[in-house]
Amino acid sequence: MTAVAEPPMAVADEPSVAPAPVTGDGGATKAKDVLIILYSGDLEKTWAAMILASTSAAMGVKTRVFVTFWGLPTFIKDSRRITGDNWMQKMLAFMKRPGMSHRKMSTMNFMGMGPWMLHCLAKQYKAAGPKELLEVAQALGVEFIPCQMTMDLFGLKREDFIEGMGEPVGAATVIGLMTEGSAPLFI
Amino acid sequence: MPLEIAQRVDAKGLACPMPIVKTAQAVKSMASGQLLEVLATDAGSTKDFAAWCKTTGNELVESSAEGGVYRFVLRRK
User: Fold this and answer.
1) Phi and psi for A40 in degrees, rounded to 5?
2) For the residues B15-38, what does the mean pLDDT come to?
């Protein structure tokens, strides 16, 4: 009996044999939302993430940035110097200065000369810096979501972060968003 | 048909993504059907504005370039 009942069930589970959402023009599949996972704390990668996040929001796409691991201290207030509860967490903050204004480059950092020159060039060519882009992104409604596990690991409190940060969540929320059709981007 | 520009955005000199960002912000404050004129010098803006209009559903009424200045006229959807 069950063997007979199964095949039609399987067909009913897949009502759309044709590829799912397709737009009228060009046929490009469109994701509903954009989800950027910002793992890096490097200046250039953070910058790229801010450009993509603000542009995505400007294009009317719901945009979320999940900030985790080395990406998380970037969203601590610039004025905070040492964060954490125990000596290891404090040492980490001491070695890797938190805040968007204190990002280092992954290459050619040269004790801060690299970032300084990059900012000079950005000013000369009127390219918006990461901090300005962060403000723009927030104004356009980009949601910045901290990783709860990294907060615990680094001993970070919600009051350590800049204004407007979202509710801390875990990996399941991030994967959940991806399965619901968010275009994921890991930086 | 004379085009009556309701708002203007001068994004000359600004680099990606600020011309798009400023346009998005300006469009928010406009009424449906109104026209927005954007001037930019970013060389990527011709493609960027076409992509922005396609994604957001606003109409790109005019797209031209003259002497390194790109001019776009957009109609708010």
Assistant:
1) -85, 150
2) 94
Backbone angles phi, psi at A172, to 5 degrees: -60, -40
To test the contact with chain A by mutation, choose from B10, B20, B21, B54 the residue with the greatest count of A C-beta atoms within 10 A, namely: B21
B46-73 pLDDT, tens digit each = 999 999 999 999 999 999 999 999 999 9
**Gap between the Cα atoms of A133 and A96, Å rounded:** 22
Positions in chain A short of pLDDT 50: 1-28
Total number of domains constituting chain B: 1
Query: Does residue B53 carry a catalytic annotation?
Result: no
State the total domains in chain A: 1
Residue B39: give its domain's CATH number: 3.30.110.40
Looking up residue A155, the CATH number of its domain turns out to be: 3.40.1260.10
